[in-house]
């Protein structure tokens, strides 16, 4: 067994083994797993799938904790002992759900673990866009002083539209309301939830776009939501509007977004996720002054990292101990397969 396979494992002598697709998880989660007779092994993020599959096979893992990288059919089938896949987080577009389902392996999400963190990041990006923080920063540092001509925008009375109203959408709506914004929500899977919380709801995406000052994405990537925001829908937005995506890459057509930003169809965008991660170094997005980019870290805070790892560990322990997987946390191919 190669040394890289053993990276991070304490002894490798317990009765059960899991592989984590990252270099680390919260120490609390490792201790919890060890206490339940489970050794924890690590595989560097974004390693090729064939390399990860070989590690899984050589270790004969019982469980997989997914952080980063693509977990395809080859990886899932590599260990005949694999009984459970747990996501260190909520999004599962990097897991082949159909391949897991065919083998009877449940894929479980750490529901609610990072809602607050992602909502905070969403609002931070929206604030930066609307208040034009980056261009003002660049201007001052270059020796300019735009104070005589600059007039900023207000959050009070601005309208934010949310696509998706799960845990993160709810947290974002509350924070936006606290800043004085009007909130409108589109979520066909929870059509009455927003109104029950006192927010307006839209019948479809197209209907709400023309009135928005901010569009924020909070839905999963599925076959139905891939390229949901394309050139046509960007064209329905106000020229002064901005777009924030802290959900999943692929929901926004990046080529169409680049053109919209270049032409001034919308005023700006902030992306925390991309169709390909890491994105290409020569992406046309990087030349745009009205784009803010962060490396898919919206949900990565000390608090959420602990919560994601512990919930994922609890899912793994429960299934390996012979319990049925938590129904509320199961990612089903019919619902989420992209």
Automatic annotation (TrEMBL):
Protein name as catalogued: Hydroxyacid dehydrogenase
Residue ranges occupied by any D-isomer specific 2-hydroxyacid dehydrogenase NAD-binding domain in the UniProt entry: 123-298
Gene3D superfamilies reported for this sequence: NAD(P)-binding Rossmann-like Domain (3.40.50.720)
Stored InterPro entries: D-2-hydroxyacid_DH, D-isomer_2_OHA_DH_cat_dom, D-isomer_DH_CS, D-isomer_DH_NAD-bd, NAD(P)-bd_dom_sf
Organism in which the protein naturally occurs: Peteryoungia ipomoeae
Protein family according to the UniProt entry: Belongs to the D-isomer specific 2-hydroxyacid dehydrogenase family.
Signal peptide (residue range): none
Gene Ontology MF terms: NAD binding; oxidoreductase activity, acting on the CH-OH group of donors, NAD or NADP as acceptor
Keywords: NAD, Oxidoreductase
Domain annotation D-isomer specific 2-hydroxyacid dehydrogenase catalytic: ranges: 19-326
Pfam family, any one: 2-Hacid_dh
Lineage: Bacteria, Pseudomonadati, Pseudomonadota, Alphaproteobacteria, Hyphomicrobiales
Record has NAD as a keyword: yes
């Amino acid at each position: 067994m190669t040394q890289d396979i053993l990276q991070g494992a304490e002894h490798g002598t317990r009765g059960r083994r899991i592989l984590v697709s990252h270099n680390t998880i919260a120490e609390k989660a490792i201790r919890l797993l060890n206490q339940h007779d489970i050794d924890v092994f690590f595989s560097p993020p974004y390693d090729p799938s064939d390399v990860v599959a070989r590690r899984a096979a050589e270790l004969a893992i019982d469980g997989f904790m997914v952080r980063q990288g693509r977990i395809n059919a080859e990886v899932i089938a590599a260990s005949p002992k694999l009984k459970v896949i747990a996501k260190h987080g909520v999004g599962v577009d990097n897991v082949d759900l159909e391949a897991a389902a065919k083998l009877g392996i449940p894929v479980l999400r750490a529901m609610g673990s990072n809602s607050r963190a992602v909502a905070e990041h969403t609002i931070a990006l929206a604030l930066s866009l609307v208040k034009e923080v980056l261009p003002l920063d660049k201007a001052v540092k270059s020796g300019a002083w735009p104070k005589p001509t600059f007039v900023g925008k207000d959050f009070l009375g601005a309208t934010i539209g949310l696509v998706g109203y799960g845990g993160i959408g709810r947290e974002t709506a509350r924070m936006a309301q606290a800043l004085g914004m009007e909130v409108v929500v589109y979520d066909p899977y929870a059509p009455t939830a927003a109104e029950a919380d006192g927010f307006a709801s839209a019948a479809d995406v197209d209907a709400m776009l023309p009135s928005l000052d901010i569009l924020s994405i909070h839905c999963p990537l599925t076959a139905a939501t891939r390229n949901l925001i394309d050139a046509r829908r960007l064209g329905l937005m106000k020229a002064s509007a901005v777009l924030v995506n802290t959900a999943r890459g692929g929901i926004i057509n990046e080529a169409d977004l680049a053109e919209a930003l270049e032409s001034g169809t919308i005023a700006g965008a902030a992306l925390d996720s991309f169709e390909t991660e890491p994105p290409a170094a020569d992406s046309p997005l990087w030349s745009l002054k009205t784009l803010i980019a962060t490396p898919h870290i919206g949900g990565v805070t000390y608090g959420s990292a602990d919560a994601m790892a512990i919930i994922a560990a609890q899912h793994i322990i429960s299934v390996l101990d012979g319990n049925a997987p938590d129904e509320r946390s199961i990612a089903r191919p019919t619902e989420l397969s992209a």
